[in-house]
Structure formats: C-alpha cells, structure tokens
C-alpha cells in the first residue's frame, strides 16, 4: 500500500509541470502515459537498492512502447517532435543515475542495507555464539593444560575429587561474562564495517538496465560515469563471470549509441563487412544497431547486404541457433524506409510470401536509392 501511495504522490507532483509544458502539444492520453512512466521510473531509481520490487524501469524502454496502448502506431510520428527521453528523465533522475553508475550511495540507503544485514546476523544469538567460539579457541589450550595440571598435582585431602570446569574458571579468575560482552561488541563493529565495504563494492542489480537506458537518453552528463564504469569493469574482468562480461558489452554499446569515441569507431568497424563476407557469415551481427542506433543512409545501405545472408541471428539454450539475417534485414528495411515505391513493392502479397526469392529486388532498390532513403525516426 505504501508503494502505491508514494507513486500517487510522485504522479501528482509531476502532473502540474507536465500540464504546463505539454498541454497544447500532446493529447491527454499520451501525457498521462508519460506521467506514469516518469513516476514509475523515478520510483525505481530511488528505491532500487532498498526495495527492488517497487517501480518499473523497463516500461520506459522506448520505441513505440513509450506510448503503447495510448495511440495507434500510425499516428505516432505526428507527435515525434515532442516525444523524447528528456521528457521522462529530469535533472534529478539523471543525477541519481550518475550516482548508481558510480556505485555511490545515499547515506540513508546504505544505513538501511547495513542495518538489515546486522539484524539478520543477530538472529538466534549469532553474535554471542561466535564470541563463545572465539573464547573457546583462545582459552581451550591453556584451560585444558591448567585443568590437567590441577588434577595431576591435587592434594587429595584438600580436594579429593577431580577439578571440574567451574573450579578451573575460579582458579584462573576468568570473567567470562565481561569477556563475552567485549567480544560481541568487537564482532558487531567489525562485521558492520565488513558489510558496509561489501555493499560499497557491489553494483545495484539493475545496473545493466540503467546502462541500457543511458544509450537511449544520450545525455552528455552520463558519458564520464559510463567510461569510468567501463574501465573499472575491464580492469577487473574475469572470463568466468558471465554477468560482468554482459555488463561490459552493454556499456560499450551504450557509449557507441551516444557516438562516444573511440568506442563508436571501434564498434562501427565491427559492423562493416563486404558483401562476400556477409554471404559467408556463420552468425550475423547485431542488425538492430544498423537500423535503430545508427539509423542513417550509410547504415541502411550496409544493412541491405544482409538480404543475402542466411546466417542465424539469435540463439537459445533450448533450440540452439535460429533466425535468418535476411529476414531481419527485410523487417528493418520495411519498418524504417518509408519511400512509397519501396513500400508498395515489398507490401505486395506475393512478395511477402516469398521474401527469400525477392531479396535481390530489395538489395537492388537500396543500392539504386542510396542517399534518398526516407528514414523513419528510431525512437
């Protein structure tokens, strides 16, 4: 209930600003959708460390999904000039993203996380048990030696029975209660410091989603934190940590989508192949980068080469390699190149039924009309 109340408060706090800025430009249903996305995204960014289940960052993953269920896809472009990521991410949210990318904590959230963990440790007298274990390890050798010596050398008239543990404690003058309290306090202090340091070295679980959003937002303030994160991950990279390799890959692609050098040029080189190389590919590269990230005359001409590639474009653990590059290339060309003669050609029923046999026609048109593509905006 609390999370819904918080979400409602955030919606109301941003509604006034949105109504002033976009009341004339955007229809009410789109404005309401943007308000909802903004509030959910902000809530997720604010609470992602202390309550991962609050808010939803992924609802803002752009393209037509930005305003899904609010307006028909055919009408989206008429509002394109008003729709961009800056509507959703304000300065406060950008600052929070930078904080997360730098793995910095608000003091309140760090205290909350550490205190939760300390309470967990305090269950079932864990501190006391550990203190007793340390006391036993520290004193057991001396204790047993003294007990053995007392029993071997005891005066049977003064002490006819064997010395017991309590007798040894009295003889040694050990104050176990005071010693135990001291160790418990020491253990708590050390464990709090250890727990704090562990959190300071651990990135939030949704860091990959945040990095991905950076590539869409393209705010210059995010570049330096992304580069720092990339360098840190590369320095500490180990081949057996799949999650870390995946995060490095995503940081690199976000920097690429923001046109940051040398990452942009390095990735771009990896996307350009000759037609013969494309034909011989055993696995096709990320074609969405050509269509949705680069989204220009050169990238679509490059994409057209894949009309001659049968290489798979995806893989799953269950079915192995799947998909065909020529089909994905055709899908992107049909979606983004809006020239009427091309659309008329590829929308014909017979053409769509047998794309494989018609791929030469698509390729030829793309070569002939290079520089004249009417490219739909990639969100």
SS element count, helices: 19
Number of strands: 2
Strand content: under 5%
Sketch the topology as an H/E string, one letter per element: HHHHHHHHHHHHHHHEEHHHH
General shape: elongated
The Cα radius of gyration reads 32 Å
How far do the termini sit from each other? Answer: 34 Å
Largest sheet: 2 strands, antiparallel
What descriptors fit this protein?
mainly alpha, 379 residues, elongated, 63% helix, 3 domains, two-stranded antiparallel ribbon, 19 helices
Give the arrangement of secondary structure elements.
Layout (H helix, E strand, L loop, with lengths): L1 H21 L5 H20 L37 H4 L2 H11 L5 H15 L4 H27 L12 H8 L3 H25 L6 H11 L5 H13 L6 H16 L5 H9 L3 H5 L7 H8 L2 H8 L9 E3 L3 E3 L2 H12 L3 H7 L2 H5 L1 H14 L11
Antiparallel strand pairs: 1-2
Helix pairs in contact: 1-2, 5-8, 6-8, 9-11, 10-11, 11-12, 14-15
């Amino acid at each position: 209930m609390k999370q819904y109340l918080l979400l409602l408060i955030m919606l109301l706090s941003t509604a006034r600003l949105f109504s002033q800025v976009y009341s004339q430009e955007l229809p009410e249903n789109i404005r309401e959708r943007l308000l909802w996305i903004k509030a959910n995204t902000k809530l997720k960014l604010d609470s992602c460390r202390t309550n991962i289940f609050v808010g939803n960052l992924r609802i803002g993953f752009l393209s037509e999904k930005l305003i899904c269920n609010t307006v028909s896809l055919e009408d989206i472009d008429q509002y394109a000039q008003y729709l961009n990521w800056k509507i959703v991410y304000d300065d406060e949210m950008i600052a929070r993203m930078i904080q997360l990318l730098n793995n910095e904590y608000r003091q309140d959230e760090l205290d909350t996380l550490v205190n939760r963990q300390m309470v967990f440790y305090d269950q079932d007298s864990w501190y006391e048990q550990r203190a007793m274990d340390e006391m036993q390890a520290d004193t057991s050798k001396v204790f047993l030696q003294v007990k053995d010596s007392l029993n071997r050398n005891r005066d049977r008239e003064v002490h006819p029975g064997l010395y017991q543990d309590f007798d040894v404690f009295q003889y040694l003058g050990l104050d176990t209660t005071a010693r135990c309290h001291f160790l418990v306090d020491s253990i708590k202090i050390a464990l709090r410091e250890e727990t704090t340091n562990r959190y300071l070295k651990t990135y939030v679980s949704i860091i990959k989603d945040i990095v991905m959003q950076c590539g869409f937002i393209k705010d210059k303030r995010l570049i330096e934190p992304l580069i720092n994160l990339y360098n840190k991950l590369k320095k500490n990279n180990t081949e057996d940590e799949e999650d870390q390799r995946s995060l490095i890959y995503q940081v690199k692609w976000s920097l690429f989508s923001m046109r940051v050098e040398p990452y942009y040029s390095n990735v771009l080189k990896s996307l350009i192949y000759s037609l013969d190389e494309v034909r011989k590919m055993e696995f096709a590269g990320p074609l969405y980068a050509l269509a949705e990230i680069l989204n220009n005359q050169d990238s679509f001409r490059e994409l057209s080469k894949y009309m001659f590639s049968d290489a798979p474009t995806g893989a799953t653990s269950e079915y192995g390699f799947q998909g065909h590059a020529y089909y994905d290339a055709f899908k992107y060309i049909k979606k983004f190149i809006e020239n009427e003669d091309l659309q008329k050609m590829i929308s014909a029923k017979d053409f769509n039924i047998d794309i494989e046999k018609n791929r030469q026609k698509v390729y030829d048109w793309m070569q002939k009309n290079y520089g004249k593509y009417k490219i739909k905006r990639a969100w």
